[in-house]
């Protein structure tokens, strides 16, 4: 059975298809978010993703999510349609950046103007300093 996040994710993908189909063809699977929200755990990433979707919806902005412990292909495929903001854990973001797939290439350099380090103290206490530093240097 599908959980609530999975159902919302599918709903978001269906909603994006009409508006983002051109993005997908123009970008060829290239994901260039304008904003990046980095969190230490997948549970926090899911919570922030759900809230961000609700907050961004009136502005027709698309939010994507990446986190470890779940299927990369499905997450990366949704990003290939283009997102305005990306909620992610540091390790998964670096994994997608370093290992571009046929489904998606994540590129932060040209478009990402905003980075939010949510729970920054936990990111450091959980040992993500190197990953966060690497993400910020891209």
TrEMBL record:
GO molecular function, one term: nucleic acid binding
The Helicase ATP-binding domain, residue ranges: 1-138
Chain coiled-coil ranges: none
InterPro entries recorded: DEAD/DEAH_box_helicase_dom, DEAD_box_RNA_helicase, Helicase_ATP-bd, P-loop_NTPase, RNA-helicase_DEAD-box_CS
PROSITE patterns the UniProt entry points to: DEAD_ATP_HELICASE, HELICASE_ATP_BIND_1
A matching Pfam family: DEAD
Keywords from the named record: ATP-binding, Helicase, Hydrolase, Nucleotide-binding
GO CC annotations on file: cytosol
Protein name per the record: Helicase ATP-binding domain-containing protein
Organism, scientific name: Amorphochlora amoebiformis
UniProt lineage: Eukaryota, Sar, Rhizaria, Cercozoa, Chlorarachniophyceae
